[in-house]
Amino acid sequence: MIDFFQSIGHNVLSRFASLGRATRMLLGALISVPDFRKGPGLLIRQLYMVGHQSLLIIMVSGLFIGMVLALQGYTVLVGYGAEDSLGPLVALSLLRELGPVVTALLFAGRAGSALTAEIGLMKATEQLSSLEMMAIDPLRRIISPRFWAGFISMPLLALIFSAVAIIGAHLVGVDWLGVDSGSFWSIMQSQVSFEKDILNGMIKSFVFALVVTWIALYKGYDCVPTSEGISKATTETVVHSSLAVLGFDFLLTAVMFSG
Amino acid sequence: MNTRKIEILVGLFVAFGVAAFAVLALKVANSGISGSGETYTLNAKFENIGSLKTRAPIKVGGVVVGRVDGISIHPQEFVPVVAMSIDADYECQFSDTTSVSILTSGVLGEQYLGISPVIASESAKQTCLGNEVTDTSSDLDDLFGVQSKALKDGDLVTDTKSALVLEELIGQFLFNQGSE
Amino acid sequence: MSELVNVDVESDLSQAIVEIKDVTFSRGERTIYKNMSFCVPKGKITAIMGPSGIGKTTMLRLIGGQLKPDSGDILFEGQSIPSMSRKALYDIRTKMSMLFQSGALFTDMSVFDNIAFPLREHTQLSEELIRLVVLMKLQAVGLRGAKDLMPSELSGGMARRAALARSIALDPELIMYDEPFAGQDPISMGVLVKLIKSLNEVLGISSLIVTHDVNEVLSIADHVVIIAEQGVIGSGTPEQMQQHDSALVQQFLKGLSDGPVPFHYKAQNYQEELLSGSQQ
């Protein structure tokens, strides 16, 4: 029995220690940012790896999710003769929830796992140690540009996701199912607010970007430097960041849209 | 992969993002009233607001001039009070005899507020804007011996028509049929 | 330098580049070193040898300042590494370099860019000058023709040579080699032995080699330190070590399977265990 409580206590303490190390890593990466002599090149390279490489999966998923939303929404709305409200239904669900959340989940799977694996591999092959021995801070050189790339990319990806999904919904709703194009757009416009919906959605996106990128980088940086450790860290990145995204989404929605 | 190609692709990615933002901001959201800043608030008491929601549009002759900002219950009279946020361009334009009614667009459509404006007199406008009024002789209102005022921020509109509730309408209809 | 007298050393130690003084270091519950002292002479090749798993690599990380000892002091050119500020530590690291066991080349850069990397980070040289320096370093390790290859295209021995070129890019005063001969075929082993020797002779770089490849390292080392049982069990020139009277040193140098380090892992009596059946 004592052992049981002891192991709980031990677990809790090691969770706190882990959170502390993660915070120290993030602060180390953020405080030591400005190295503009080499900075932009590194950042652009990471924007390519993290952002541009995720573009295809985001756009394709967005298109399909928009089309499915339109199809499902239409079958329900047409029963009430309210198929004109398809526009706001699709736009609001995308901008407020699906855009930021699905993008964050896809991002965790596509870019987050890649970041963890890359950094874990750098650790396992002693590249991080070797940077330190070359008197170059790996937090500044490796972690910082990846963090900023993730932080910038994800909101852009979420915007692209929503825009493509709305186009997909238009394709299905207007061009296939025959909702009037004019009312599709105009009712959407009358219902969607720039600040309340688009900006709040973007704030969500920035929060998710911080959470996912941070978890991915930390899991890589703190992993056990063996092939087993890296694969475990990669899995943990996807699981932990997906759960964190959904949890934060609930909190943010409660704050933003319940009033 | 050389640097230049990466730069171009990243540029493309950022351009996509900005374009998506522009599409969402301009095409999807209402870039009209709520985005353009300055508004002032009028309150109106109703007996029944039906299913009026916050952010429902406020229209004058079909043109949107504002949005419903909040709905609350009057603390003493226990009737709903609707706070209307209206474009600041129309401040001091409406007279206090203006009426506000809750209307429905289409049979099952959303409910909105319609303002039937009574244009405030020149002197009332000036008073409302805080200017000194020197010459009041030309005002028509004086003929009736009533001094009308213009509506400014925070004022209460008294002349309101509540929402039509379907059950009440049917009840009235049956009642009328019966009495004939 | 009077405190060095007690160390059993015959080589010329009038100038030591690294001094380890009474260092105790433990990882978790396990004590790795206990009051260990030795020094690394300037301009010589020093070998640290010992059985696997006694923390030879840890020693290099202590010298590099990546780890801090529990007690004791580590001096590099007379300056104390553990008590250094972060900035001073980063400054002094430009004077030392480390060849990692895996080579630790950056996998996303070509060989050329790998070697140019420390130059681009720490100097203001023009690209043209950097090109010249990199080509000279690559020529020294015989890999000038491989400059456009990616690290994944190199064999293990070539990767280690490329990493060696990178570690001498900034002309350090001390190179620490972590198991440079591990997993190499005889030819690349010979190449590495020759390279380490010639870098030491031509450039006068002090070298510290951590290894358990006895024959290779005894052929080039000027000074040997053997570590076991949480401390130094013997040090001196290779010849002195061959004559050393410690049984442990002899077992290690000759590669005997049984001796002070037993062949059998700690276990209960063999006969008893066989006869005990399945009750246990």
List its traits.
heterotrimer, A: about 260 residues, mainly alpha, about 0% strand, elongated, B: eight-stranded mixed beta sheet, about 25% strand, flat
Describe the structure.
The complex is a heterotrimer of chains A (259), B (180) and C (280). With 259 residues, chain A is an all-alpha fold. Chain A has one domain. Chain A is 86% helix and 0% strand. Chain A contains eight helices and no strands. Chain A has helices spanning 2-31, 39-77, 86-124, 127-133, 138-176, 181-191, 194-221, 227-257. In chain A, helix 2 (39-77) packs antiparallel against helix 3 and helix 3 (86-124) runs parallel beside helix 7 (194-221). Chain A is elongated, with a radius of gyration of 21 Å. Chain A starts with a helix and ends with a helix. The mean pLDDT of chain A is 89. By secondary structure, chain B is α/β, with parallel strands linked by helices. Chain B has two domains: 1-36; 37-164, no CATH class. Chain B contains four helices and eight strands, in the order H-E-E-E-E-E-E-H-H-E-E-H. In chain B, a hairpin with a 6-residue loop joins strand 5 and strand 6. The model of chain B has no long low-confidence stretch (mean pLDDT 78). Chain C is built from ten helices and ten strands. Chain C has helices at residues 56-63, 86-93, 111-122, 127-141, 156-167, 186-203, 214-220, 238-242, 247-254, 270-275; strands at residues 16-27, 30-41, 45-49, 71-76, 79-80, 96-99, 174-178, 206-211, 223-228, 231-236. In chain C, the strands form two sheets. A six-stranded mixed β-sheet of chain C has the order 6-7-8-3-9-10, sandwiched between helices. A four-stranded antiparallel β-sheet of chain C has the order 2-1-4-5, with no helix packed on it. The chains are: A mainly alpha (259), B alpha/beta (180), C alpha/beta (280). Chains in contact: A-B, A-C. The A-B interface holds A 41, 44-45, 47-48, 51-52, 55, 80-82, 91, 95, 153, 155-157, 159-160, 162-164, 166, 185, 188-198 and B 3, 6-7, 9-10, 12-14, 16-21, 23-25, 27-31, 34-35, 55, 57, 64, 108.
